[in-house]
Amino acid sequence: MPKIDSDAATQALNDLGHLSSAVGHNVINAFSAIVSNAELLRIKAATNAIPIDNSTIANLIIESAIEASAVARRLIDFTRPITSIGDDQVALDHVIDRYVDAGRQAERDGMTWTADIQPIPPIYGQTDQLEAMLDELVANARESRSDQAPLAIHFATSVDSRGWVSLEIRDTGRGMSEETLVRAIEPFYSTKSGHLGVGLSIANGIWRRHRGTLSIRNHDVQGVVFRLCVEPCPRDTYR
C-alpha cells in the first residue's frame, strides 16, 4: 500500500476548504441578489406598488449573473494545466504599448496610465495569455486604491544586466504588509473579504508558463512594484 503524505493531504484539504468557502461565498451572494431582484419584479407585476424601474432591476440581475459566471471563469483559469506556450515570438514592448493605450482610452474611474516603453527583444509567448496576465495585475492595482485617492499605474520595459527582458509595473496604492508580500501569489490568499484571492496566482501561473520570474516589493515612496523577467528568444531566431 502506498504511503500517504499526511502533511500534503492536510494541505490539500485546507486548500479545498479555502476554495469551497470562497466559491460558496461569491456564488451564494450573486444568486441571492438574482433571486431577490427577480422577486421584486414579480411583486411589482402583481401589485404595481413598488416604485422601481424595471430596467434598473433587470440590470442588477444581469450584473449579478455575470459576477457569478466570472467566479467560474477565474477558477477555470487557475486550474488550467500548465501547457506549452509554443514557439510564437511576441514583441512584449508592443503588447504593453497597445495595452496602455487601450487602458487610457477606456479608463472610467480616474486611474492614470503612464509608460516608459524601451525597445526589447522578442520573447516566446501568446499575446492573449499575456494580456490576461496584465488584466490581473491591473485589477490588483485597482483594489489597492486607498479611500478613492488618486491612483496611477506605470509600465516600464527594459533589458537587464543578464540580457533578459524586464517589465516593471508600479502602482501608487496602499502597498502590502510584509506578510502579504510573502503570500501575495499564494492561491486563495486575500486580505479582502469576499475576494477569491486567485488573481495574482493566475498572473504568476501565466508568466511561469512563459518561463519567466515574478517578484513583488513595496516602492520606496508609495505602492507596489511587480518585476517580471524572462529570457528573450535567441538572436539568431528573430523573425
What would you say about this model in short?
The protein is an alpha+beta fold and 239 residues long. The chain has helices at 6-47, 54-79, 92-106, 127-143, 178-183, 199-209, and strands at residues 89-90, 112-117, 123-124, 152-159, 165-171, 213-218, 224-230. 49% of the residues lie in helices and 16% in strands.
Keywords, please?
single chain, 239 residues, alpha+beta, Heat Shock Protein 90, 2 domains, 5-stranded mixed β-sheet, two-stranded antiparallel ribbon, 6 helices, 7 strands, 49% helix, disordered N terminus
Structure description:
The chain has 239 residues and is α+β, with helices and mostly antiparallel strands. The chain folds into two domains: 6-79; 89-237, 2-Layer Sandwich (Heat Shock Protein 90). 49% of the residues lie in helices and 16% in strands. The strands form two sheets. Strands 2-4-5-7-6 form a five-stranded mixed sheet, covered by helices on one side. A hairpin with a 5-residue loop joins strand 6 and strand 7. Helix 1 (6-47) runs antiparallel to helix 2 and helix 4 packs antiparallel against helix 6 (199-209).
SSE inventory with pairings:
Layout: H1 6-47, H2 54-79, E1 89-90, H3 92-106, E2 112-117, E3 123-124, H4 127-143, E4 152-159, E5 165-171, H5 178-183, H6 199-209, E6 213-218, E7 224-230
Parallel strand pairs: 2-4
Antiparallel strand pairs: 1-3, 4-5, 5-7, 6-7
